[in-house]
Amino acid sequence: MEFKKNTVCQVEIEDIGESGEGIGKVEGYTLFIKDAVIGDVVVAKIMKAKKHYAYARLERVITPSPFRVVPRCSFYRQCGGCQLQALSYEKQLEFKQNKVRNNLIRIGGLTSEAVDKAMEPAVGMDEPFFYRNKAQFPFGVDKEGKTVTGFYAGRTHSIIANTDCALGAAENKIILEKILAYMKEEGIAAYNEKSHQGLIRHVLIRKGFATGQLMVCLVINGKRLPEEKRLIEALCRIPGMSSISISTNQEKTNIIMGKEIRLLYGKEQIEDTIGGLTFQISPLSFYQVNPVQTEKIYAKALEYAALTGRETVWDLYCGIGTISLFLAGKARQVYGVEIIPEAIADAKKNAAYNGIANVDFFVGKAEEILPEKYAKEGIYADVIVVDPPRKGCDEACLCTMVKMEPKRIVYVSCNSATLARDVKYLREQGYEMERVGVFDNFPNTGHVECVIMMQYCGKEKKK
Ligand code: SAH
Q1: Is 397 a catalytic residue?
Q2: CB 319 less than 6 A from any atom of ligand 1
């Protein structure tokens, strides 16, 4: 068989790829097929052919997999948001657990026995829908010229009109429909990226799941909205509405939020609580998107840190200090490091608000602050917690961490490939991976979070 563009073939899906796509083989040639589910027999059409593999489009399912479920959202194939909605939740968790396991073996250099001994069962959600406390919806026009809002179709900027995303809060739909009605009544145009004309670009909606407080921030290509009062009146009747604001963004940019924010109604911030701590969240703050799973992952990080109340702990990549504040209750002293100054300002406010005095925060790159403080002040740590972005830790940061010789390193990760790379480095420097916890913070998507604990053994430590 010749494999080139537009070749149509029948294939059984035997594996799941990195992003949740189905993988099957025909005559030893590998096909990656988005939306095909492990266990399916499908007909697929090759879109892009390489020497040993191709990307193909799912044409039809001949024999559905026993793991197939009916996706809750009718837009799931067009929308870029969910990759796994057609796979049973149990199987999703198994896929995520395997992804972490395989990376630790393949990239981390651990044996399968060592990984299996350390690994705990994946922690999923009871209800794997409606878990996102934050969403940003773009506004635009459809083919008929009607104003719509929803989500960008995968890897494009064309909007799929959908006010009812199955991952978000139920209130999103009510809020979006009120905004669309207001735009229609007042004749307000949605922003057009090409012409740089039109007013309303995006809306950011946030909900404090524990408090029920709602925040709406409209991002506009201007300073004011016509008849602001009418919009406020429509939105403020929604139960829980606590903050309505405008963010001005007049740049030609893909960055959603503008820097300037003007409050129209209520307070500048909403509140939410995680595990007994209260956080104030403003439109621009970083805040974990799935608070239910976040609480579980933080509890696991705290368990792995095994604090007694006497320890000095460093929390690197601390964001608004959420993990730092959790640790502070069980440690003598916590130091947080974070690159974004506004996040550190929030972290300090959150510490004061919760009456926590044994934390200090520093603004800067972890890979610069830590080596500098180690060289100048000889800083010390019993335990170091890191929670880096997808690219993982910088080697300069890992190198200083090793020099500080903490008893334990707790690594929270949103990318198990870079985690595994860093685990390999730390293992070469005298740390051994003892525990692994896998958490599903983003059900129905290909993402997986994990937290691991590494213990200092020092035996084979190289200088
Ligand atoms: N621990 C926090 C935030 C984790 S997200 C929480 O659970 O909420 C990762 C954080 O690392 C982000 O806040 C990001 O701004 C920060 N960051 C990215 N690169 C960094 C660097 N080189 N040094 C320090 N912080 C960094």
Answers
A1: no
A2: yes
